Structures are given as C-alpha cells and as structure tokens.
Amino acid sequence: MAQDRLVCRECHRVVDPDANTCPSCGSSSLSEDWAGLVIITHPEKSEVAEGMEVTEPGSYALKVR
Ligand SMILES: [Zn+2]
Fold it and tell me: How many whole angstroms from 47 Cα to the centroid of ligand 1?
C-alpha cells in the first residue's frame, strides 16, 4: 500500500504530502513511515483518542517511526 501521506511525529495527525508543518500542532517533524490509520470523529467519546491524547477530530496514525 502506498503511503502518500505524512504523519506528524508529535501528535500523530495525518497531513497532506505537500505539507511542511503539521496544521494541528505546528511541528515540522513529519514522517512517511507510519502504520494504522484511525479516523477519530468524536475524540471525547473515543478510548483510542484518549490513549493517543487526541482532542481534535481527524485522521491519525497509530504508529509513527
Ligand atoms: Zn502535529
């Protein structure tokens, strides 16, 4: 599977491949090497979101290297 998107190493947010910084936390530490896409629509109701310390709805990766 092609990983055409990048993931922020700080908050695990999935960002556009042409992004230079994470729109969520502003970090420029983006990785192409990630796995486990999760889409969080209601972070306040999600145990996954709680474990990942996610507070904003969006697409996130479970693992980032
Ligand atoms: Zn981020």
Answer: 19
8 is in an annotated binding site: yes
Tokens of 37: 């896409």
DSSP type of residue 40: E
Q: Which alpha helices (H) appear in the chain, and where do they start and end? A: 47-52
d(CA 5, ligand 1 centre) in Å: 14
User: So what's the pLDDT on residue 50?
Assistant: 92
For the entire predicted model, the pTM comes to 0.85
23's torsion region: left (phi>0), alpha (psi -120 to 50) or beta?
Answer: alpha
